[in-house]
Amino acid sequence: MDRRTLLCGLLALTASAPLAGCGTGAPTRRPGVGSARAGDRVAGLADVPVGSGALVDVGGDGQLLLVRASESEVRAFNPACPHQGTTVNPPAGGTISCPTHRSAFDPTTGAVLSGPSPRGLAEVAVAVSGPDVLLS
Ligand code: FES
Q1: Which residue's alpha carbon is nearest to atom 4 within ligand 1?
Q2: Higher pLDDT, 107 or 61
Q3: Transmembrane region positions (predicted)?
Q4: Is residue 84 in contact with ligand 1, taking CB distance under 6 Å?
C-alpha cells in the first residue's frame, strides 16, 4: 500500500463527504482543467482572437485562459492568479492582468512582469488540431 492510499483510507474514516483525489478510478484533477482529460476539445480555434485570448469553461468546473499569439499557436494557462486566486483577464496591451491587485503576466510564458503575485500563471498543455483546441 502506498502512502497516498493509506492517507486516503485514514481520512475517509473521519470525512463526511468524498475526498478530492481519493476516489478509485476518478480522474486526477489538474489546476484549471476540472475533470477534462487529454484529447478533450476545450475551444474552437476561431473562438480565440489572434493577439489576444479568451476564458473558456472546461471539464465541468474548470476554466482556462487561452492565448493566441499567432494564427496557429495557442497556449493555455490556469487563470487563477497565484496571489489570491482572482481570475485574470485575457491579454490586452501585451500583458495578462489581474484586476484585484494588478499583477501583470507575460502572455507568451505566464511569467510575472509586475505586482504582488509570487509566481507566474501555471501553463496547461494544449494543442491545435484543425479547427479545435484540444487538451494535451
Ligand atoms: S489576486 Fe491577483 S494580484 Fe492579488
Answers
A1: 101
A2: 107
A3: none
A4: yes
116 CA: nearest ligand 1 atom: 3
* Residue span of the structural domain in which 37 resides: 31-135
The response to whether residue 95 sits with its C-beta less than 6 Å from ligand 1 reads: no
| Confidence grade of residue 30 (pLDDT, cut at 50, 70, 90) | low
Q: Are residues 77 and 21 in the same domain?
A: no
Number of domains in the chain: 2
List the alpha helices (DSSP H) in 14-128: none
For residue range 85-136, list pLDDT tens digits in order.
Answer: 999 999 999 999 999 999 999 999 999 999 999 999 999 999 999 999 999 9
Same domain, 11 and 35: no
Chain centroid to Cα 86, Å, comes to 13
Ligand 1 and 119: CB distance under 6 A = no
Q: Is the CB of 117 under 6 A from ligand 1?
A: yes
**Which CATH number do you get for residue 106?**
2.102.10.10
Question: Of 77, 113, 78, 121, nearest to 94 (Cα)?
Answer: 113
pTM of structure: 0.78
The 8-class DSSP code of residue 69 comes to S
H or E stretch covering 10 = helix 3-12
